[in-house]
Amino acid sequence: MLQREFWIITFTIGFFLSCTKNEEEPLNVLAGGKTTVFVENSNSFQFPAPNLSIEELEQHRLGDQAFEAIFVTAPATNNSGLGPLFNQSACGSCHPKNGRSVFSENPGDLAGLLFRLSITGKGPHGEPLAVPGFGGQLQTKANLGKPAEANVDYQFKYVNGTFADGELYELRQAIFSLTNSYIPIPGGTLISPRMAPPVFGLGLLEFISESEILKNEDIQDSNGDGISGKANWVWDVQKSSIQLGRFGWKAGQPDLVQQAAAAYNEDMGVTNPLFKIESSTGQRQQDSLKDDPEIDQELLEQTAFYTRSLAVPAPRNQSDPTIQNGKRLFKKIGCEKCHLSSFKTGVSPFLFLSNQSIQPYTDLLLHDMGDALSDGRPDFNASGNEWRTPPLWGIGLTLLVNGHTHFLHDGRARNLQEAILWHEGEAKSSRDQFIKLNKSERSAILKFILSL
Amino acid sequence: MITTQLKYFLSFGIFFSIFSCSDEPVNPQSNYSEILKTETNQVIILTYYDLNEKAGLLSVRCDEFSSNKTQAHLDLMRQLWRDARKPWEQSEGFLFGPVDIQGIDPSIDSWPVNVIDLDAVLASSDPLTKEYLDGLEGTLKGFHTLEYLLFGIDGNKSVQEFTDRQIEYLKACAQSLKGETNKLHTAWISGPSPYGTILKTAGEPSNQVYLSQKSALQELLDGIITIADEVGNGKINDPFVTNNITLEESRFSANSKQDFADNIRSIQNIYFGSTDGNYNLNSLSGLIKTKDAALDSKIINQIQEAITAIINIPGTFTEAISANRAAVQNAQDQVRQLQLILESELKPLFDKL
């Protein structure tokens, strides 16, 4: 059977099975608009958007292969170009099943946790300044025969607290240190741990219009609600201009192609048309090969398209009274001021992403999250204390998909409740109100978030 | 690696069938715990047990190789590699749980082999121990690195070609593989939260992973659909369509046809709830038989058609992708047909459970 015929049959089956009148069913929440799927198993983050065309599905399939491809040391017949310095050898290594990386119990194997580095100051486009001898990211692995930049170790620090109803809680934070560096790490180096997040639904976030995002900015908190919200403005390599930042823990990347390109270059040491120079350039680990860029624009676009065209899993059990109560309380204590539930995407060259009503539970803006969560490292306009609100859609499936419930930018939170309790800065009021709730109310909020 | 087309149209099935079923009668809640127990104990854990045993046998023979460097011993190691490969490929219909969330899969089955770094290790004076290999990337250990070492790039490596360092690497690599298969088997049966228990107790109030039995059953179903997709649209398709033999996964050992057939057998095993080819009442097949006996027969028949078509490809897969394209095409079609039935006919039944 020809491939195209195969797909036509598939579509036909789909349409015969369909019954779109039920889209109006209020409890079947389409978190990703028409990109939503209703799946509750370990593959929940791995489906293509169901509204892709046949051609787009084929693009998505190729992107899936690119995303899963394991790179090896050049020269090689297939998947050539890993390193010389790297953190992982495939996109999927940091984003298992397209989901959230675990906080590894073994410091020798960091899984999807990496460390951005910089020294004080800004580059010509406002970017963080690279650390001499180390660049902008710590690579903890290297091709055989070359030294990695450093190892990472950590010790846990514990913080204890009490809810208003007397129940005790404990928070855990890893205090990181860099060891065995191949050369001394310059004094004053700023270090930011970053845990790899899920990659589904990103296409929808990419095509929320700039004006829709910026209308929620309130940098001076002029409405006095304690929440500011600030866009990051970052360097767009392809456009050679400053653009709105949307992706990454500090919204440091403007779009998915650049996000993918930066990950290939820094995370895997794979040079590409946007970042043609090895991350090890100028260091003694640099290779002498003349094979850059090691992947072409087509592969880069395929990878970006894959993350752009993944489906968003639908929330579950929305008719459950506890979940409905949790949703009400979530709003009441102010969580939704940053974790915005409602957006509409603008016009996109990818029709499947255009004009979709979505519920990502993020505003894509930076917020001061307090000193406890601060990494002390500015990133374009983001201060050390500022982080972009992460989307909450699909978060309740993390245990099923990834086998853990580790959250926040450095994976310090062992569960959702710990993640909430780390909220300070602009989110302190909401955090404090959460602490004052009784046990059943706290449970309802957690159950609601886990239903997303 | 989970990449193939039927996974994508799977999403259509999910999307449309969910929307389609809300105005249809819903069957009363049934108890599927016996099915989950059977699938877990009689298929998944048994397969991982077998894998771990076979990896152990391979490791023992590799350990002996330096003192018994004969063609017969090399042939034995190659056969033991194939023997261990079989349960691994038969486990690919259920690539969820510890194999994935504990990151075990990359240590067992990463592809391609990192030949440049492997040569660098062999040329170095690093001690070649299990512990050393445990710390290396997946592309420097596991089945495919063992395959490369045992068979050579053209599958005809002679005993005389093995250097002392290669033998040391081979031993450590087999030990490392055995360590991973042991970790995998153990994770399903013991520890504070064995994954076997998690799957078997799906839907119970204490189970935070599978909140319903239906979710666990759909996990099993998605697993077999995914591997059908992978075989039909990835493993066969990529080297076949591009006519590029370097994209064939088990080329060094010429074991690809066996791999593909065992992948389809993994579907059969899950569907039958057994690993011996016999139908178990408490299985997906048993469940479907009560709801649509004709569909059950159709699935059983198509599984066999797919296996037969793969086995009937003349010669090696490497040869066939250029010399017997019609036979390869037929095998691909039969696997795709199986996937189509699972997706478009079986999955809607599951969605209504």
Give a short overview.
Chain A is of the alpha+beta class and 452 residues long.
Present the secondary structure layout:
The complex is a heterodimer of chains A (452) and B (353).
Chain A: H1 3-17, E1 36-37, H2 54-68, E2 72-73, E3 80-82, E4 85-86, H3 91-94, E5 113-122, E6 128-129, E7 137-138, E8 141-142, E9 151-162, E10 168-179, E11 190-195, H4 202-206, H5 210-214, E12 233-236, E13 241-244, H6 256-267, H7 297-308, E14 312-313, H8 321-332, E15 343-344, E16 357-358, E17 366-368, E18 386-388, H9 398-402, H10 416-421, H11 428-436, H12 439-450
Parallel strand pairs in A: 1-14, 2-3
Antiparallel strand pairs in A: 4-8, 5-6, 5-7, 5-11, 9-10, 12-13, 15-16, 17-18
Helix pairs in contact in A: 2-7, 6-7, 8-12
Chain B: H1 5-21, H2 33-64, H3 71-89, H4 98-101, H5 105-109, H6 115-123, H7 130-134, H8 143-151, H9 164-189, H10 195-200, H11 213-235, H12 237-242, H13 256-272, H14 284-291, H15 293-311, H16 317-323, H17 325-351
Helix pairs in contact in B: 1-11, 1-17, 2-3, 2-9, 3-8, 3-13, 8-9, 11-13, 11-17, 13-15, 14-15, 15-17
